[in-house]
Amino acid sequence: MNHIMPLNNDWFFKPSFSERDVVDETDLDDFSPVRLPHTNIELPFHYFDETQFQFVSCYKRKLPIIEFGSDEEVVVHFEGVMTAARVYINQTFVFEHRGGYTPFEVDITTFLTKGDNWLTVQVDSTERSDIPPFGFVVDYLTYGGIYREVQIVVRNKQHFDAVKIETPVVSIEKCTANITFKLSKLFRSGQTIIAQLLKEKHVIAEKTIAAHQLNELHSPDDTLRMNIAFDMLDNIQLWSPEQPELYELTLALLEEDHVIDTYQSRFGFRTVAFQDDGFTINGIKLKLRGLNRHQSFPYVGYAMPKSAQAKDADILKFDLGVNIARSSHYPPSRHFLDRCDEIGLLVFEEIPGWQHIGDTDWQAISLQNVEEMITRDWNRPSVILWGVRINESADSDAFYEKTNALAHKLDSTRQTGGVRNFDGSHVFEDVYTYNDFIHRGHNVPLESAMKIAKKKMPYLVTEHNGHMYPTKSFDIEAKRIEHALRHARVLNSAYASPDISGAIGWCMADYNTHKDFGSGDKICYHGVLDMFRIPKYAASVYASQADHAPVMTVASSMLGGDFEASELGKITVFTNCDTVKVYKNDRFIKSFKPTNPSFSALPHPPIFVDDLIGDFIKENERFSEKDADAIKAILLKFVEYGNALPLKYKIHMGYLFLKYKMNFADGAALYGKYVASWGEKSTVYKFEGYKDGACVCVSYKDSSYHPKLSVAADQEILMETETYDVTRVVIQLTDAYDQPLYYSNAVAELKTTSDVIEVIGPKQFALIGGTRAFWVKTTGKTGTASIDIQLDNGLTKTVTLTVK
Ligand code: GAL
Fold it and tell me: Does any ligand 1 atom lie closer than 6 A to the CB of residue 466?
């Protein structure tokens, strides 16, 4: 039987390493207690020196007393150490792993002595040019430390290894599950293996294999690889993005009644295929609409435990409504992928790298990354494509022939991709995955698949926008709207092109980066969310394409002062409603539907509100109906063109002035009353979103100042489990109708009332774009804690959290 124990607590850390740390392994001078996941340094939000985390550090801890028999082994499983780890037991060097994004195991059995045993890890977080992604520049930071979890495993020396579950046939009538695995030591006579498939703890199929059947189990290429096939399974519920049905496989190796080893893994019954005319899952076409995700967070970089990783998947699926994420540019945390499996978010997972290809040793690590990534994640239904090229690297035929051959050998059920930024590349992959940045706001987005791939083959757009239009949450309104529209235009093109499987935008959230990129403050403002995962308008473009909840974002403060020549232009509403009704001070103006042909391929095109006057002039003024319409048309054109009003409208205006004996001041008064709403005590616009005749959302725009502070924790109950837990708390300053006050830099101060939680990062900070968030972590204690949030404008709120 194997025992898995989390090894995340009771570590000691020192931001340097010397031979003395191993020679005198129990010496804890200069060390401080830490828990994993751990960042080797807490960084500022922005404006910092990115060499700050690039140093060699030391982690150590006394191992718990481990009981194990002579037929057992003890291994330490590291999920991710950035960038290279040298592992010692007591004073002896045991193992080195190079590469920060993939797991590794260290067999420490023979190094353990009676009495205390110390585990010491030298962690090199410098940007070593011998390890991917380093060697040249990289547009993201890699941070440092033992930033993912660690476990200690005691297991029989004869144990299951490399267990792979494939579901080559799925249909309503019948499904198959094909299980292959290795045994680390030969299957002996008298031994049996029991394989069970379970759904919600109920066994739905079972097979027992005895050792005398061994010969049948030999596979031709690998004497130890065994196979158990479950054919003709009926009543299986398929895994799909809409209904992510998960099953479980358990394996038990027995000798008589004694359990030698067990294994368990979740999986799903589904097939996926990228074809020349698009992507299918379980034989059904699905247009992929996605975002790239970096796994970084403010202050702590990559070092975040389960709930923050899982929350990102939830944000992508439920808040942003995408159906695929690309784990740019490396394998993500298992917690992120676990959640993707659970909620039905598809993943394009890729090996670490960024444009640069190193020498043969470097390439050997990259090949090892292919193997580590695939064998870690091949049982995940969410993963639909392996990225086996260094993102945006040049052709390198010998290297990429190998990465593809390896991926295909390891996994025959998934296709490969490899992200390029040029056309006509030599293709060893099954899917031409291409970063298409041609859209500049005015031109038609997305190249044709044929033009880039030069032949008919499966094709996926893996990045767009990003650096083409970096946008901050505190940029002027016009920029934030154009940022959103650019994402909408590209998505529209992807939907309109049957041979494009989908488009994955750059990117989910802003991220810290190197000096060569970003806005000079070490941030790339490329996200549809900011670094705290707070939405910009572009987030609503994605959210509004999904159907699970009503979405209606009126992408405008409706205050001219933020626009060139004070012209609001058309008001863009990102919504999945079919109709939007607009009211001014409770008087109905007009209904609007999606009409703009530039967005007609989208599941839910934006709706443009281009008339805030309605019949008001007709109803209120002394003009004939026809002239009232003409005056309205002139005013609306004036909004569009300002003083450059086309001549025909100028002439018509002159004619109406003469007819009604009006002067310039009268005209200006009409503009003030019906367009600018100058002088009104208050102007409140109401937007109602309708779906199938029912009003499903309402939004108000108001120019008066009634600020409101809202504070919300992602989860109010935190759990100490295999390590500490975290939650994000979002602070937002809004008007009385919950509209963000985008330009507020109010200063917030946090006060915690108990030591069961700790704030990550500063406790005093200015809002950014009228909002900000912070994370808190548990400290190992249980109980209740309140956090008082006080803004310098006098507003306060308290959030209460419970740690269990
Ligand atoms: C791409 C690159 C991404 C990111 C993006 C910014 O070329 O693959 O990592 O840098 O540009 O738009």
Answer: yes
